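Quick check before the chapter quiz. The format below is the same one you will see on the exam, so make sure you can read both the input and the output lines.
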Amino acid sequence: MRIPTPLDGLPVLILLGLFASSFNVFAQQPLNLGFEKTSVEGAARPWGWSPFQLGPNTVTSLDSLSVHDGKYSLQLSNEALADDGTGGDHTLGYWLSPYELLGKKLTLAGWAKTEKTGGAAQVILAAYGDTGLVKEAKSIDFKGVGDWQPFTLELSGVEAAHSFFIIVGTNGSGKVWFDGFQLNVDGTSKQALEVADNFTPPQRKWLKENATPFKTCKPSPIGEKADFSDLEFFRQAVGEAKIIALGEATHGTSEFFQLKHRLLQYAIQELNVRVFAIEANQLEVEKINRYVCGGEGTAEQVIKVMFRVWNTEEMLALIEWLRAYNLQNLRQMVEFVGFDLQDPSLPMDSLSHFIGDVEPALQALVDSLQRNYREAWRAQYYPQAADSIRLIWKENAEQILALVSSKKQTWQEKAKTAASKKRLEWALQNARVVVQAADIAYSQIVSARDTFMAENIRWIQSQRLPGTRIVVWAHDSHIARSDSPDFRYNYHQGESMGKYLSRMYGSDYRAFGLFTYGGQYSATVSFTNHKVLPVDAMNAPRGSFDEALHGIAGGLGSGQLFLNLRPAFELKNNEWLLQPRPVRFVGYATSDYDFGAVMSVPYQFDGLFFVDKTGASRMLR
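Here is the expected output.
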């Protein structure tokens, strides 16, 4: 049996969201090769083991009744008796940090047991590089009915790889159990893996000298005068930048929400920021903007237009504070806008209404061109279709944009009021957003979203007075500058939103990441189970900035720090600062091993905000 996997050619960053829950006792990457620790999915999946392929009839579970040793074995079960192995493969994998493994002799030993009536099972130890599979070792095919059988795999001579994987899989009917896996590296048994060079005392001294503690993450309550005396370092770090980006290593950390709320308060009251832009669908967020600027609706109503990760008590407090601020500052109100493009439904509807009002004769044509794509979104979020259909969606969207653009001058001449001129600009932007969404739907290149989000931020600024300052809120991976000369050690392989914003604005762009040593965060159980729950954020491993700043924070008696990274490029012999290190990367779904991404951190951010211990954001729904 050859276990196909979806890994060939993929950078490790793409695989990060596949993992869920955590060990907190190791300062390295823990190995759950005996299947003894459950994930947040309980007995449905062991910690660290992620589905690569889901066979239509196969179920993954932890079995406590049939084990070789310990409490659990991993069972893959297919009850479809007629399945001879041609109906689909079911595979799980365990990612291994390459740091300790490159150039070493790896030995994987373990046990397998079968009750197969069709198909076979197999174990693979594999290394993957930039162009795909580098080298692999495969077990025999486990077939038929048999008691526990041992296997041993050896892999050596791999000098360059970004990922090692242990992969288990099955096809066909029946059951297979795996248990008691053990990894040896050059003859030494491993229960955990080191993931990076540790920081030396002189290096930690440099970090301490460039770190500034601050008092609190908590924003000032409505009506209370803020004390910003501890945030002067932020003014210096921002400089004269017009676009100030605040990231987050997870979308569900309470202190990240609170800190960004406080920094926004500071930026509004001390740095003359007048626009707050968030990673959420652009036209939908205008409902929040109408509330914070005009009082239309309630905060509880308008917050629901954003992605679920933003529906938190912390974000609600930010929206309510902005409304209160605007009521007291009618001549200097702050806008709340979005720049994402994931759902084009509302832009399509709005564009149709606009055409119907300004040039009714064209409405039928526009509606016919976008009907199929619009109906696809009614039926399914992120609709899927054949290549030929997705191409039609894209071509039709481009045709509409060309039509609207060709009419711009005529419509401008007819627009006599500021409101009608603004509506025309929105119509053009909505047509662009539909093209952006259709382009991604056709190409299936998700990283193109970052390019488009950067373009949307540029459009937002173009609609304001020259020099307007904007605070941008998004994930660390989106705001990152991605300036490392080695694309492998940039977020999104150097195609991040921050990369494009940095090119557009130069020194007028500043990016600040938000890191934490450990605690909890809120996230969905998986990409298919959308139940949100608090999840343990594993303690940062040795060699990460998070772990080094944890020690510095303890020494300074502060739970939060700012690390200025700009001096990193002025430092002689700065290779240790620029070398790739593991960073926490958690999206909207839980992540077992949080540090599967490896980045050159000073090339990503102008500075890091660090909070030692964090809690899960408080969900509203």
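If your answer matched, good. The CA atoms of residues 74 and 207 lie 44 Å apart.
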